[in-house]
């Protein structure tokens, strides 16, 4: 039995050696046993990188609903900005149309939110989102077109350079319009062709031949040099001194605004206190005294002066003539009816000598006429 067990064990050992020998003979001698592991590691690494790239791309993508919501937000912001700009344009037009109002300079909300919804690209180099940026730029461009079309419909002030002109008011209007609407200088140059009239139009056309590419800043200074002369300042000063304030006859707001602009024309460096003193000097003494007491400060602004003068004119009779002369109208002389006109002398006929031009009482041929020759008496006696 022991021999039998030993034989079985030896038989198994031989069988295992035979199998191992067969494996060694079938294995290629040049095959690296770690090659398969390297390939598997490379494939798994690539799969991991691909998974990370897909995950980052999915995280950076914006879904359709969020894009639509952002577009709606942009449209709403643009609508609000355009509504605000339209309101400010209406205010600008009404302010310049009113004779007694000053030109205000309100701030514009148009450029306040330009960068509010700027979309930055994601961290992935292979993914960008240019659609929202394009929507924003298209919206702003369309708004600018509508805004400039509204500016084109405005009643632009015209300047002729003749009479008692005021080129400073003309320049200030264009400056305010450009600041509020960001209108380009090329558009202003085209408008200058139509809003400059008379002598100013001829001057502009002559200057434009040598300065075609100049901007509005250049033309502003040239207009000031051409029309802001010493002769113009002297005329403004003479008009200022002659235009006195007469309560009840001169509109308060028109007079104060007109005189204020004249002062700024020939003495632009005056302080507010000096301007008030110059205006008070053109009033009646009673009105001047009452205005000084009501203003409470010599540095009050123009609106305060207008309100004080309007109260004095409406509630008192200071500065007015107590007994205004009544205008006596001359009535045409009436012709008395039934009275005959005096006869013409050439139609009168003398009954003594039968000649015209005199009567018989004044006839030179009568006997009792003094100085008549004697032969005439003898001739008539015969």
TrEMBL record:
Transmembrane segments: none
GO BP annotations listed: mRNA processing
Extent of Polar residues compositional bias: 18-28, 116-130
GO MF entries: nucleic acid binding; zinc ion binding
Chain positions covered by the region annotation Disordered: 1-37, 98-130
Record's keyword terms, sorted: Metal-binding, mRNA processing, Zinc, Zinc-finger
Family annotation (PROSITE patterns): ZF_CCHC
Sequence ranges assigned to domain CCHC-type in this UniProt record: 349-365
InterPro entries linked: Znf_CCHC, Znf_CCHC_sf
Keyword Zinc in annotation: yes
Keyword check for Transcription: no
Name of the featured protein: CCHC-type domain-containing protein
Protein source organism: Puccinia graminis f. sp. tritici (strain CRL 75-36-700-3 / race SCCL) (Black stem rust fungus)
